[in-house]
């Protein structure tokens, strides 16, 4: 390791399993999280696990997909907030990491990420000064943030110290959507103001198309495509104001194919996607909407695979056809769909038998599993759950085991920074 190790990396490098790490076996306490050797069956439930082979597959798929289209990928690190997974993404060809808050940007910079895109505006004076101090001490690193108003530009100029040179992407929004300048004239005015700043420098244009739709209906695809074309045109409009190669950035994890199509005609501009959920995909929302899923007719070797799942134990069978599991809102995501029962085993990590059922509700620490057909459950059985929406899965776990599905062995755990 280098003489100076950024705090986030240092914490992971020296991190050992602790007794308070949720669902980890006591015999692993004190073991380095990068050098574990344990069977999944020794862990407790509820448990979130990452699939080593699926993650490796997804990294290869997305690297090939973006490279074939001449795109860069700066995946959204907020999905996992796991520097160990960011390192895998960077090693697979990603050119930077995107974050959503000033605090997350600080974590990414201190983790040694060379290029950090803050897909938001930081208006917190203390955080701005903290970020500026780090960048002054580490000129080899780059931070680029978004702005969507002249008032934001004025705040940044007021709070950033003299000598700063913060990169800026002008954010284009849309009526009824999230942040972003609502029209091109305003965006152009912001760009001109940034270009004239002494502490900011204009980098290009950015936006988030995912706020415009939530499915793949014709109306949704039309709205997203039209917005992406507007964003591409804005990047061309701002080009004369930019010293160096301009950026244009869009692409959540649902419509990156439409972003790629809209950006394809751009020449001499860095076309940057920010899709982040691809590293673990899911079994719910993204499974149903991603352009790289077998549900879209994509061959399995070219499709993203679910790389996260949960395991929960049957703790009660209070009435026929109803089982209560020991995983709830504190353990699994539920904002983009409830967990999906995939199978049931007698022991964690053991051979699974089919399960005909549905999770109908979650409490803080319980899941309601209604089951039918020939399904037979007993107290203590372990149900495997497919999950929907990685962003709200990772934030519930400080330490997540990575399992080799072929052997059921855990040799590594990923630490998150939420």
TrEMBL record:
GO molecular function, one term: lyase activity
Source taxon at top rank: Bacteria
Signal peptide: none
Keyword set, alphabetical order: Lyase
SMART domains in the record: D-ser_dehydrat
A Pfam family that the UniProt record links to this protein: D-ser_dehydrat
D-serine dehydratase-like domain sequence ranges: 307-404
SUPFAM superfamilies, A to Z: PLP-binding barrel
Family listed: Belongs to the DSD1 family.
Protein name: Amino acid deaminase
């Amino acid at each position: 390791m280098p003489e100076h190790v950024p705090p986030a990396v240092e914490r992971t490098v020296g991190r050992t399993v602790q007794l308070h790490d949720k669902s980890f076996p006591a015999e692993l306490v004190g073991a380095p999280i990068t050098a574990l050797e344990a069977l999944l069956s020794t862990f407790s439930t509820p448990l979130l696990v990452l699939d080593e082979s699926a993650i490796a597959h997804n990294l290869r798929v997305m690297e090939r997909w973006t490279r074939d289209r001449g795109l860069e990928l700066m995946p959204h690190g907020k999905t996992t907030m796991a520097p160990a997974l960011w390192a895998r993404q960077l090693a697979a060809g990603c050119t930077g990491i995107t974050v959503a808050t000033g605090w997350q940007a600080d974590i990414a910079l201190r983790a040694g990420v060379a290029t950090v895109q803050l897909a938001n505006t930081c208006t917190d004076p203390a955080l701005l000064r903290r970020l500026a101090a780090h960048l002054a001490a580490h000129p080899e690193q780059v931070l680029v943030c978004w702005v969507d108003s002249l008032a934001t530009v004025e705040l940044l100029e007021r709070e950033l110290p003299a000598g700063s040179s913060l990169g800026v992407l002008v954010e284009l929004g849309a009526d009824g959507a999230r942040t972003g300048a609502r029209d091109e004239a305003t965006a152009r005015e912001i760009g001109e103001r940034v270009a004239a700043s002494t502490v900011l420098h204009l980098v290009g244009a950015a936006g988030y198309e995912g706020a415009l739709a939530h499915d793949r209906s014709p109306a949704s695809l039309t709205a997203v495509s039209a917005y992406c074309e507007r964003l591409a045109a804005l990047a061309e409009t701002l080009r004369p104001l930019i010293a160096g190669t301009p950026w244009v950035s869009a692409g959540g994890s649902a419509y990156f194919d439409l972003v790629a199509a809209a950006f394809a005609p751009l020449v001499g501009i860095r076309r940057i996607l920010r899709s982040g959920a691809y590293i673990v995909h899911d079994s719910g929302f993204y499974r149903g909407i991603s352009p790289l899923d077998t549900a879209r007719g994509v061959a399995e070797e070219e499709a993203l695979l679910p790389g996260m799942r949960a395991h929960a134990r049957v703790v009660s069978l209070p009435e026929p056809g109803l089982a209560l599991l020991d995983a709830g809102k504190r353990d699994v995501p539920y904002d983009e769909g409830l967990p999906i029962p995939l199978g049931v085993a007698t022991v964690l990590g053991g051979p699974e038998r089919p399960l005909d059922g549905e999770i109908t509700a979650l409490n803080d620490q319980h899941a309601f599993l209604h089951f039918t057909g020939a399904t037979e459950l007993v107290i203590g059985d372990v149900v495997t759950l497919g999950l929907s929406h990685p962003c709200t899965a990772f934030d519930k776990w400080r330490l997540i085991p990575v399992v080799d599905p072929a052997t059921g062995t855990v040799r590594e755990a990923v630490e998150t920074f939420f």
